Amino acid sequence: MNPVSSSPLFKQAALVAGEWLARSASGATFQVCDPFDGKTIATLPDLGLEETSRAIDAAARVQPEWAKRTAKERAGVLKRWFDLVIANADDLATILTAEQGKPLGEAKSEIISNAAYLEWFAEEAKRIEGEIIPGAHPSQRILVLKQPIGVCAAITPWNFPNGMITRKVGPALAAGCTVVLKPSELTPLSALALAALAEEAGVPKCAFSVITTTDAKSFGLEVTKNPTVAKITFTGSTPVGRWLMREGADTIKRFSLELGGNAPFIVFDDADLDAASDGALVSKFRNAGQTCVCANRIYVQQGVVEAFTEKLLSRVSTLKLGRGTEAGVTMGPLIDGRAVAKMEAHLADATAKGAKILSGGRRSSLGPTLFEPTVLSGVTQDMIVTREETFAPLAPIIAFRDEADVIAMANASEFGLAAYFYARDMRRIFNVAEALQSGMVGVNNGALANEMAPFGGIKQSGLGREGSHHGIEGYLELKYVALGGL
Q1: Residue 256's closest CA among 473, 478, 442, 52?
Q2: Residues with catalytic roles
Q3: pLDDT class for 1, splitting at 50, 70, 90?
Q4: Could you report the per-residue pLDDT of 96-110, keeping only the tens digit for each?
Q5: Can you tell me the distance from the alpha carbon of 352 to that of 395, in angstroms, rounded to the nearest whole number?
Q6: What integer pLDDT is reported at residue 4 of this predicted model?
């Protein structure tokens, strides 16, 4: 039996306003396919405006009652959801790998590490604290309350179909909000599995709906124009983020946006080159390079560029391509043919302008969406790969002269999500960390995300933060109460 379809968490129905719908009002369906070979895994209802509106209305009906529950009660529900995710991590990882392609071990790591956001925000629910401020008159006091913003719409991408949901739905429910979610049509099965566990944990009916649809624009228009939706949280491309903000302007939507990245990864001449090459391998090639915070531009100081390149090539040679469920596989397929075409376009542009392929550089014979991990030397700032997010296993190495030189190159981008650098000198560490125009900076560290840290970017990389105690603030409104006659 297919290991995915045998799981009780495998759903071929959407959760809309408390009901599991196997059929859309229009009768339309779409297929979810394995990115490794294109075979159909599941058929889901292709929902439309009717179902989206129904989910929003239902979320609005139950939100006041959910908000009235004590913080401890809401925390208990989230903690049960966390426990269920951990208990079902193997099934969730199998589903994730089937629809997204990443290796099974990497998928399970995503499940467990991102379940921690549910646990974290279960605890933060009990720490939503207001203020009492001395008034302007002896008989007055100023009371500041924090209250849930209301109905939230969430739009999540395909690259981390489990993690992007727990980061958004966790704080929303903890704050007393309700959520209507649209996962990527490429990877909706993880969202449905999480929703089934949320239902089992005690999340109230209608408080969390999952809309499966291929019509992202119609969903976006409905949630931006519908006055019932108070907030939109979105992870995806910068152009789509801009569009959502424009469309949501008339109804003054609140936004949390985690958008595109173009992360510089800098190796200074005083760096531990073994640690730097280990960090580059993780940052660049995790999830086949399909991460918003992955190293997109690798800058190496001239004096150590040859030594670093040799170490990186040695590590890249250990990567094993293949189907994510196969033993020993460390890098799976790209999500689809468009991703492969973009990789090839960036590679062709770089080589046409003088870059040299040191490893990889071609599709794998193992499958149409598998691309060999590729390292380039001789890369310059006029190549597309330094300006656009490749989202694929392409590591371009760019030599630089000094600190001022590399900071100027690193900051020459409209994006400001993540940046990394390796160095030992403490003066350099503080100067560079402060000079890089990025919402997150990894120093001698190739991995950034965890539930305790405020994840997010600046410039064209977005608004707001996910994780940490800051992560719940985007789901709360401040209310000032003037107390008189005291």
Answers
A1: 473
A2: 258
A3: very low
A4: 999 999 999 999 999
A5: 16
A6: 81
